[in-house]
Design a protein that fits this description.
The complex is a heterodimer. Chain A folds into two domains: 89 residues, RNA polymerase sigma factor, region 2, helix turn helix motif (Rna Polymerase Sigma Factor, Chain: A), CATH 1.10.1740.10; 81 residues, Arc Repressor Mutant, subunit A. Helices cover 66% and strands 0% of the residues of chain A. Chain A contains nine helices and no strands. By secondary structure, chain B is of the alpha+beta class. Chain B contains eight helices and 21 strands. The longest helix of chain B has 17 residues. The chains are: A mainly alpha, B alpha+beta.
Amino acid sequence: MDIQELKYIKKCQEGELESFAYIYDKYINKIYKYIYYRMPDKYISEDLTSQTFIKALKSISLYNKDKGSFSSWLYKIAKNNLADYYRTYKNNLDINDLWYLEDDTNIEVAADKDFKLDKVKKYLNKLNKEQKEIVILRVWDELSYSEISEIVQKSEASCKMMFSRSLEKLKQEMPIGLYLLLVLNI
Amino acid sequence: MKNENQKIDKILQDLYKIDPNLKKQEKKLKEIIKKLLTFKPEIEINQEFVKDLRKKLLKGDNKQVKFKINYMSKFIYAGIGMIVMALILVPYYNNKNNNINFHNLVKNSGINIENVEEKAFGSLASISNYNVGSLENSDGENREIGVTGMGSAQINSSDEQVEGRDRIMPMPTPVVYEYKYVGDDFEIKKDKTVVFKRIKDSNVLANNLISLDNLDIGKIDYAKFSNLQINSISLYEDKDSGYRVSIDNGEKKVSIYKNWETWSQENSLNKRLKIADVPSDENIITVANTFIENYNLDMSPYGEAIVDKAWLEDYQRAENKEKAYIPYTMTVIYPLIMDGKEVYNEYRNKYGLSVQVDFRNNKVSSVNEIVEHDYQSSDYEVVQDEDRIIDIVERGGYRNYNYRREGENVEKKIVELGSPSLEMVRVWKNSPNVSEELYVEAYIFPVLNSDDNNFYRDYLIVPIVEDLVLEDEKQNNNISNNTPELLPGNTSIIQPRNNDFPSVDKDEKQGSGSNMEIQILN
């Protein structure tokens, strides 16, 4: 674990608010992206990101390094915020089901030109929701297996195995995957 | 491009550690990961937003509830408008001082812990047997039992119905859950652990609260009783939408309930709620926080509020969501923090101050577990053999004494358990006359395959304290040696678990909720 980070966390826990700046600067981009990948709307993502950091600041005294890394603690807060948002405003959908959304699902996807949700959905829908989550956490969010294991509450070995099997599955589907890629002209 | 290749290589190296054979397929795997990275959205975060949020956070401009100490002080001031009920009625109260003296209620804030010598609480094993697993009642007769303590039963075809008993449902096929630990190896790294015991010795109710000498209720000569003490009192606000306050001197505990007689029932009748009616957690917590702030409850012993989602699990299990029951009170739990850890109960729900929010009226309907936080702490030996922990969890966890039924008409289901985490858990030490509240470290094992609709536990716990483990092992041996016969089918009525019909909110009708479990009634 980042010793510098721990030092700032400890200061925050002792009430030194300014030390939160280090944590904020380190994670703001990562948390925003984590939320945006799962809720691709600029304003909602900003709102959920704000809530995540406010909650983190309010409850930082509860963070215990012996229970896991700070990053996964923060990601879990973000995940809970997303889950609350989905349940409240998206007809009780499970956040993990994002990648299962049917085409006619009324989700306000922002018109960001580079976002390829439809393509991702088609490609990744060969995986179950846990596999998708782990693949996204590993490849897009670039988290370590140790962090992923704390977020999804599975053992590190099990996360590695699931990731490996996910790729294996995608590999088996490669003819279809390649076909899609060709058709979609990616 | 170089950066992307490095990422791909790193991901591949990790994979090869898991399965070196994957290296043979490197080309294809590289292609897949590359495509996954291609799919990754390019996101630019708005720098104005980043700056604003930073400023807001560091200024402390986020809305925080500031909790104050002396949780009962509001009630002191409200005391003038309240009436003493419970044991003694006000008309007979003839104290020289007409104001009720609540000063002893306000003792201190936060958590008081007194360190005492090792094993100061004696053996932690309970003296009595527990209901779960007791085969006989005090008269020596068979008592009602569940087959596994947490399982279910499925109804057989009806060809076993007994003549003249058409209305009695047939004997179910008992389900026996077999628990299998599939998690990683774990190591117990300590030989001592701190056990906390809640102390309830102090009197929170002042002895001179009511003049017992002048009591004249029921034409009883109270002078004949010796050393009379006040055990509990109940107060109520004499106003619309008022609250009742119940103070339990024995348990050093206060509860607040809505005073039904003064609350409007307009919103309470005949409306089936939909999932969309349930407000966000944030809104529910805001209602709870506002109440807490208003009544100055001391929140220093508690952690971050969470909304209890147990009802949602039942909702998700229900096949017909339209008919599924949705409560109109949501429970907000402020977990108690002991030794820096959030406290769980034996079912791995967070334990602490519990606030029920009636979201149709946007008000708090009850507050429970407002307790005096006086504890003693003492070191106890930790079990040193991980296999003993696994043995207990593989028969359903602490205090789940499993009647292992073999042979026909028993359906077996495997429940897989993952790697545990070490948490603080509240358990009870029962003796014939009192129950003591203990806080001990325990392993909490997540249930991995909980797809079976009838299996409702998400976690199983096993304390690490040697005394408690030993007690559990002994108790289980007693049960295993006394496995009962199944009750005869023609004398049993089976009420299967059913989540699809409406019930009554728990704070409206205590003791309801029998729809959750199988009950075998003789």
